[in-house]
Specification:
alpha+beta; ph1033 like fold; 28% helix
Length: 136
């Protein structure tokens, strides 16, 4: 069963265009226990929204988890988990944080409820609703 996620990145450091250019990347540098546990729960084939944080504050694309069970290569102690992701497609139009916050259907979404969480789980209903918003 495919699960759905949202993974945040600062586009000035590594954004959608970088992922498309690279074709795949290790999602490293996460230092939050819940976010790391979310990555431990991921399976190959799970899908994730890529969210540009800080400056853009918008969901811009869809990624697929391509490898799991990895240890973050930036972690000298070897305790933080990570995954590899690859781009699937950009959203038809980005969905801003303001749109998400204003939508009553998304009032329980972890993006808002746990705003500092860098890797959040998305319910199937939230996933489908965001895709519908992006499609117009």
């Amino acid at each position: 069963m495919t699960r759905f996620w949202l993974m945040k990145t600062e586009p000035e450091k590594y954004g959608w265009a970088d992922l498309v250019r690279d074709g795949e990347t290790v999602w490293d540098g996460v230092r939050n226990h819940r976010a790391s546990n979310n990555m431990r729960a991921m399976q190959v084939g799970d899908l994730a929204f890529l969210y540009h944080s800080v400056s853009d504050k918008q969901i811009v694309g869809i990624m697929e988890v391509s490898a799991t069970g990895l240890t973050d290569p930036t972690d000298a102690e070897g305790k933080w988990a990570t995954v590899r992701v690859k781009p699937v497609r950009p959203l038809e139009r980005p969905i801003t944080l303001a749109e998400v916050k204003a939508d009553a259907t998304l009032d329980g979404i972890e993006l808002v409820r746990l705003s500092r969480l860098s890797v959040a789980e998305i319910t199937p209903a939230e996933w489908e609703h965001i895709l519908a918003l992006a499609a117009g």
